[in-house]
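Assemble and predict.
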Amino acid sequence: MVQTLVEKIISQRTGLQVRAGEFVLAPVDVVLAHEGTGVLAIEQFEDLGKPGLSARTLLFCDHAAPSPRKELSNVQQRLREFAGHWGADFYGPGCGVCHQIVAEQWAKPGSIVVGADSHTCTAGALSAFATGMGSTDVGAAMALGQIWLMVPETVRVELRGEFRSPVSAKDVILQIIGLLKADGAIYKALEFGGPGLAQMTVEERLTLCNMAVEAGAKAGICAADETTRLFLSEQGREVDFSPLSPDRDATYEDVIHVDLGGLSPQVALPSTVDNVRSVEQAAGLSLDQIFIGTCTNGRLSDLRAAAEILKGHQVHTSVRLLVGPASRRVYLDALNEGLLETLVKAGAILLPPGCGPCVGVHMGVLSDGERCLSTQNRNFLGRMGNPQGEIVLASPATAAASALRGELTDPRRYLNERGRSHG
Amino acid sequence: MDSVLRGRVWRFGDGISTDHIIPGRYYHLRGDLPALAQHTLEDAEPSFSQEVSRGDCIVAGKNFGQGSSREHAALVLRERGVTAVLAVSFARIFFRNAVNVGLAPIICDTDGFRAGDEIEADLEAGVVKNLTQGFDRTFSPLPAVMQEIFADGGLVPHLLKHGGYKWESTR
């Protein structure tokens, strides 16, 4: 039987030969929740009355960490106590965003990951079948070690050509969501592949898979190749690698082709993720805050892209620039490379590892009428804490260029200008 | 769960996100459902939470419940007395969450429904009657596994009742 990546993983883990459209009970390898969803998940787990956890369970404090108020401090304490009592792995404030830590430490090719967070699909970059669910499904997975799934149809996203800096994986996925629209892949998996994908780093693949859910997808996924093996090796877990790829004649619900060579930097204008334009169409839009970080774009390569543009310059006086590394590991690597010094000297406010202001809980809530350009994955009304504010989504390079001018700016213009002046 | 639901329509458009349903700025209230539910759909219809009545239904367009996995979005609707959401399509996580907490998600053509219409949804027959305007719409029943969960009142009651999933893999 020829199979897509997702069909193959679910078949391997269930011992059945499954096809899209079938319903299965599947074992779960890793379960995660955070302070926004975790208390409800652990309450459901406790209500089920099982003697222990039946799957590796990770609990994170990342969405509001360090806590801005006592209610959330108490939630974080509850997760810490639960983890201590039941033997879950607890990641407290400062460890980083759950999805980044899952990528660094847990996800591996062929594994099944479920999380009480919609961006759990990020781990598909490492060829895991990873999907977001609600707290009750996740609490049940903790108790039973299994979940029910409909094996999803797969849309193959065939990437050709090569993008050139400062165009990035964020621009690729924004363009794809602009094509598919926010409901274009509901209940489906997006399988990224082709020669364009083969050239991408794991960090870039994480950005692609992270935003699969913004087209409604159940999962985003990439084959496990040599790039995957090297990434896992760098994380000290080469033992977790196994090659995995879809069969040549696998059945896809649809195939879409994207040529990376001709791609411009992309932005999503307020207030839907599929409201995508090329940067030229929106350049000059005034901005008040810029945020570089999150599970979408808070990795080392993202901070490098921003620092390359910001180095030796000053953030425009009319904007605040916030930078949040996605994990402690990213923070330390950026520190060691001197990137954090470059960013702070340019005028950035450095945030602790975590979700930062993306969810509107703390550290960067917009005032009435303000507009933020963010490297995050969502720009829904009210997302950053104020429905009177607006959010534009873009890449780290576009964010950095825009920070220097105080308005939405094409990063190619800045790099080209600098390239000429240097040389 | 009752298989025939009757109530009054609240009308919404396409793309109602879980941020619309329960905004992230009330994150700290997630441990206090009655307090959280005071803010239900605040950013889409500010009067909703005060004026909604027990048994009311939501009727919306495409991709209802898109975005965050927060199950509180389904929970606050149920807490405010909403029994069913009719939409052209649902975001997948919201769809699962709704069934898991005993809120009926119905996928059907929602053109023609108006705010305030009285409707009656028969979940077993797969028919919604618009009693005010006098038209019917049919819909497909939930997949078998979700029917079992919904019939038992949600996922936790289902798992407690059967000692696990009653339903087994189709293969």
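Chain A has two domains: 5-259, 266-421.
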